[in-house]
Amino acid sequence: MSDAALRAGLDLATLSDVLRLAGSPGFDRLQDQLRRTGGCAAPIRLTGGTKLLDPATKTVLHAYATDTEPGGVLRVACGNRRASRCPACAWTYAGDTYHLIRAGLVGDPAKGTPDTVRDHPRVFTTLTAPSFGPVHNRPGNRPCACGTRHAEDASELGTALDPATYDYAGAVLWNNHASELWRYFTIYLRREIARRAGLTQKAAREASRLSFGKVAEYQKRGAVHFHAVIRFDGPDGPDTPPPAWATLDLLTDAIRAAAARVQVDVPAAGDHPARTLRWGTQLDVQPIGAFGNGEDITEQAVASYVAKYATKAAETTGTVDRRIGNKEALDLLGVPDHPRRLIEACLDLHPLYPDRKLRDWAHMLGFRGHFSTKSRRYSTTLSALRQARADYRAAEQRAALGLPDPDDDPEHSTLVLAHWAYAGHGHTPGESWLAANIRRDIQHNREAAREIRAALHDLEGELTYE
Question: Rounded to whole angstroms, how far apart are CA atoms 10 and 202?
Fold first, then answer.
């Protein structure tokens, strides 16, 4: 193999495929397809086509078929939210989550949330799991209980000090019921708000609404915890101001009281005793500042933090991002000891609690909930954001083809006839290498643009100050 190929990270099979693709007549169009997917790691391959017709005259205004495409297929982005599966699509998902959370904090009339929502009381809450046994950690300036001062990237962080006494069964059962703990928390929270306001629950609901957006994150020990933006609204949601009694202090007190009340009972099974699952004592509730004037956390920080963890899952703890059928697979996958024991606990508990589907979610260490959720009135939806992006691209396509915009001229709308068939997914080795390079180039350009915007913002501030 040549030195150039080695420097480019190409093995012989990949190099051979890249040369084949580069010599093919559709190479430029292939690169264009890969670029339009953002460098997706595992695009969906489709065959078929579309026709745009004038509904009055039945004239074909435009026709497209995949017959002329490289390989006879159209490649579209897979849309996977996991960064471990597809960094390109995960970046898009994180961006959508950022705008969804931010719209509920600062308001965005274009997304259906008024700017006045910024004046509503809102907090950033973190709900954690209880302890299942001592783990290696970094307790401030003191050494860990094992006597070692661990580095920030030490592999043993979060793992059990004594695996023989660590409650692995309790940990995975807690993860498995975490979504139910959250559901009961939202129920008790509304009750605690009404009690503190001196109202019945019905009267409190008629005078105010509670909106939230949350994301799940795995701690190093493999336990799920939730980060949530919780906001007071008026009776009609974010369009109306909350009542005078709906204060930040009342919301904070109600959150703490509700979290302390929540419990989920798990019956005994086999040799495992009955359990009562609760939230951990490390509850954090912080007010969100509108402009960062001395507050601990700002709107920008919250939206960025939530978006960051929307694309991550249990693989951050050392497990894998695919289902595991049996314990023997753990040897082949090289799963570290701590997450391995958690996965084995899921597999052992599955026959005892078959309705909990612990075997199916063993790779998630028992957690089976949605990673990102929100209440109906919090802000816009991911579907609306995706539709806006699709509409924008469709408008670009119409402009390129010289077709009228149906919104500007309803009398000259077009009829779209489409037929698509699934033809597989993924890349050849050469396509995968090309897509990875395209994704890196896009990422580099984004980072460069971000640095330029930050520099211009700082310069603008300096000029304003002078």
Answer: 65
Question: Helix and strand tally (H, E) in the chain?
Answer: 13, 12
pLDDT under 70: residue ranges of the chain: 1-9, 290-296, 406-412, 457-466
- In what helix (H) or strand (E) does residue 266 lie, and over which residues does it extend? strand 264-266
At 139 the pLDDT is 82
Residue 295 falls in which region: left (phi positive, over 0), alpha (psi -120 to 50) or beta: beta
Query: Which element (helix H / strand E) includes 53?
Result: strand 44-53
Backbone CA torsion sign across 187, 231, 316, 220: negative
Residue 369 has what pLDDT? 83
CA triple 85-89-95, angle to 5 deg: 125
In angstroms, how far is CA 233 from the centroid of its own chain?
25
**pLDDT (0 to 100) of residue 82:** 86
CB atoms within 10 A of CB 420: 14
* DSSP state letters, 165-229: TS-HHHHHHHHHTHHHHHHHHHHHHHHHHHHHHT--HHHHHHH-EEEEEEEEEE-TTS-EEEEEE
Q: Which two tokens stand for residue 320?
A: 């894998």
Contacts of 310 by beta carbon, 8 Å cutoff, 6+ apart: 81, 93, 94, 97, 215, 371, 372
Q: Nearest 5°: phi and psi at 53?
A: -115, 150
Structure tokens of 463? 């000029």
Domain extent listing, the chain: 21-82+382-465, 114-132+167-321+369-374
Q: What is the pLDDT of residue 6?
A: 45
Give per-residue pLDDT as tens, 56-65.
787 888 888 9
Global pTM exceeds 0.70: yes
Measure the CA–CA gap between 341 and 423, rounded to whole angstroms.
39
The pLDDT, as a whole number, for residue 411 is 63
